[in-house]
Amino acid sequence: MKFLKNLKEALISSLPLLAVIILVAGIIFPVKTNTEIIQLVVGYTGVVIGQAIFLTGLDYSVLPIGNLIGSSIVKLNKLVFVLMFAFLFSLLAAVAEPGITVLAAQVGGIHPRINSTLFIWVTSFGMGIFTALAVYRLLKGVSMKKIFFFFYLAVIIIIFFVPSQFQALGFDASGAATGAISVPFILALGVGVSHTVSRNKSAEDSFGIVGIAAIGPIITVYLYGLIVGNSDTLNVYTPGENSDLLAVMLGNLLPVALAVFPLVLIFLIFQAFFIKLPRRKIGQIIIASLVVFVGLFIFIAATDFGLAFAGKYIGKQFMMSEKLWWLLLPLAFVLGFAITLSEPSVVVFCEQVDELTSGSISKNTIKMALGISVGLATFFAVIKTILDINILWFIVPFYVITIGLIYFTPTLFVGLAFDGGTVSAGAITSAFLTPVTLGASQALGHTNILTSGLGILAFISVMPRIVVQILGIIYTYRRKKAPISDY
């Protein structure tokens, strides 16, 4: 049964995370109340079960919906309509993403000048525009490398003019907008478009769409920051403090419903005019969408209730310890690596890489590369938080390396690298690791939490783009050498 297989994989992949939680909250800094124990147990258990349910329904709902819509909009023949629908669908997918709703509530509560609702639409608008650009690239055969080079160079230049409180926030918004719903949908949309345009195109044409789409929120949030500006006074935000499970569940019910069912509604509209599937298939997709809703609801509620508390607790306790604070640095790498293996969007992405490359690039290879990348990213983010260093000292050099590697890396791996950097900053990553740095920042007494506590998603976005490109260069070199070594 597919659910049992997914449950087994989710459990195995999350064991390193469980080990870290037990080590810290059970041995080094034991939690003291039954409420805290319940938060940890419910959080971990819910994440594992929710992920298994979510992935079980995904193969029969969001992925085929994205594929079908992607292949259908190309048949409209008029470029303007194709791009308009690509923009609209990705905008709605981003608006519906639970992660962006959570981030908007967080930053709206911290920064008095940020309107939470407007922030969601600003971020989603950028996502929609750049998804349309990614589809245009597929249709017109524009070089993926040129797009990444030009726009990330633009980001590096713009970031110097952006108010400091928005420099890290742009990358965090990009990570939040590309989560458990939007990533599988946009990936499938790209596969549907590329397969419809030409069945002779290689696997590399199916990748890069998420990486391009993720540029949009960075730029639009930066433009929003230039308008809004820094705030002299910031409110206090502490994640993971709500220990009322029912309240957490009710608070996530509407955002998760809005994440799933608008896509089903769009599919039904396209079904009526373009797709024309038999009723049995439609019923299967609707039932699978309900399964996705249940799984995502359990996953997000458990993350908010338990993992956010665990992350904040770990970061805070280590920084409050005079003797053991340094242990947070190696532990940060382990946490980043462990969480990546449990991230639903990473699991979906690695499965698609394995499938579209016919196993020549295995899902385990990509998963390990992303795990190491996020581990390194978390390590650097904790250093930044402890020393309260401006994020530009890290991000600018990392992105200079990233865009420099583009011209030495095979096109397939460029797409994989930028997509991989996007999917790694998913729901569980942001919900657990962001509280780690926020908790550490709070314990250290840093006053500007938007600059000292946030920004970990910026590291998580860029590091896979370096590591996977290096992997691609090594992979290509070894393949070229392989025939010679046989003699």
Rg, nearest Å: 21 Å
Cα(first) to Cα(last) distance is: 46 Å
Structural class: mainly alpha
Major sheet characteristics: none
**Proportion of helical residues:** over 70%
From the spread of the alpha carbons, the general shape counts as: globular
> How many strands appear in the DSSP assignment?
0
- How would you describe the oligomerization state of the chains in this entry? single chain
Overall mean confidence score, pLDDT: 83
In N-to-C order, the SSE pattern is HHHHHHHHHHHHHHHHHHHHH
Tally the helices: what do you get?
Answer: 21
Q: Would you identify the regions where 5 or more consecutive residues have pLDDT less than 50? A: none
DSSP strand content: under 5%
Topology (SSEs and partners):
Blueprint lengths: L1 H27 L5 H25 L3 H13 L4 H17 L2 H13 L5 H25 L3 H15 L5 H14 L4 H16 L11 H5 L1 H14 L16 H31 L3 H42 L7 H15 L1 H13 L6 H25 L4 H14 L5 H14 L2 H18 L4 H4 L3 H30 L2
Keywords:
80% helix; 0% strand
Task: Please describe what this structure looks like.
This protein is mainly alpha-helical and 487 residues long. The chain is built from 21 helices and no strands. It has helices spanning 2-28, 34-58, 62-74, 79-95, 98-110, 116-140, 144-158, 164-177, 182-197, 209-213, 215-228, 245-275, 279-320, 328-342, 344-356, 363-387, 392-405, 411-424, 427-444, 449-452, 456-485. It is globular. 56% of the residues are buried.
